[in-house]
């Protein structure tokens, strides 16, 4: 299974402001959606999923995608998403996707979910969209885990004059 992280970040590595808001650009959102569309298999944490449920449906990853949600809850409202829940963390999500014949997944956050995948070494490539924002007291990309993972820079491209996308390979 090839695992991609797709992350939008402030210049100081925050994935949301202190109140959990994600003030990212339309270009980042469009690029994220297009990438999810290409891969067709998305994994996210329960809290991120619940945020999607509050957004207009045009801001969701394509509801036709298979979306696996990490959660200990027995059920969540599907609201048009094709969702599968797993209580078994990253390994559980990978196992569900493998059984469905998926060869690639996009891990779409949030912090706890990306941190769990990092801790388990289940990440191959990272796309990081840097937005022109500095967020004091924001939510850090990774938290509560001690790892030191070496990356190789692959490429960068502007998504707009304001937003830069960085692409990294995880060294194994
Ligand atoms: N900038 C970006 O690109 C981006 C992208 C996505 C999200 N975000 C932001 O990130 C924030 C949400 O992140 P978050 O860290 O609070 O929550 P999260 O990772 O979205 O969800 C956390 C929940 O997922 C489940 N979970 C996570 N890891 C697990 C594991 N290893 N095993 C089992 N269950 C696991 C648990 O659900 P249960 O409690 O149900 O058991 C946990 O409470 C929001 O503010 C959101 O806006 C930013």
Please characterize this protein's 3D structure:
There is one protein chain. The protein is an alpha/beta fold and 172 residues long. It has one domain: 3-Layer(aba) Sandwich (Dihydrofolate Reductase, subunit A), CATH 3.40.430.10. Helix content is 24%, strand content 31%. The strands form 2 sheets. It has an 8-stranded mixed β-sheet. Strands 2-8 form a two-stranded antiparallel ribbon. It starts with a strand and ends with a strand. The model has no long low-confidence stretch (mean pLDDT 94). NADP nicotinamide-adenine-dinucleotide phosphate (NAP) binds next to strand 1, strand 2, strand 3, helix 2 and helix 4.
Key terms for this structure?
single chain, 172 residues, alpha/beta, Dihydrofolate Reductase, subunit A, 8-stranded mixed β-sheet, two-stranded antiparallel ribbon, 4 helices, binds NADP nicotinamide-adenine-dinucleotide phosphate
């Amino acid at each position: 299974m090839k695992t991609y992280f797709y992350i939008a970040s402030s210049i100081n590595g925050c994935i949301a402001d202190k109140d959990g808001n994600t003030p990212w650009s339309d270009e980042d959102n469009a690029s994220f959606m297009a990438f999810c569309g290409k891969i067709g298999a998305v994994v996210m944490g329960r809290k991120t999923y619940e945020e999607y449920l509050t957004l207009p449906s045009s801001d969701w990853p394509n509801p036709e995608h298979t979306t696996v949600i990490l959660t200990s809850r027995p059920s969540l409202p599907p609201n048009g998403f094709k969702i599968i829940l797993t209580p078994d963390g990253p390994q559980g999500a990978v196992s569900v996707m493998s059984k469905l014949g998926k060869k690639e997944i996009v891990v779409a956050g949030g912090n706890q979910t990306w941190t769990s995948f990092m801790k388990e070494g289940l990440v191959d490539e990272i796309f990081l969209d840097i937005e022109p924002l500095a967020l004091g007291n924001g939510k850090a990309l990774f938290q509560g885990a001690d790892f030191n993972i070496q990356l190789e820079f692959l490429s960068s491209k502007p998504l707009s004059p304001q937003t830069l996308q960085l692409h990294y390979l995880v060294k194994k």
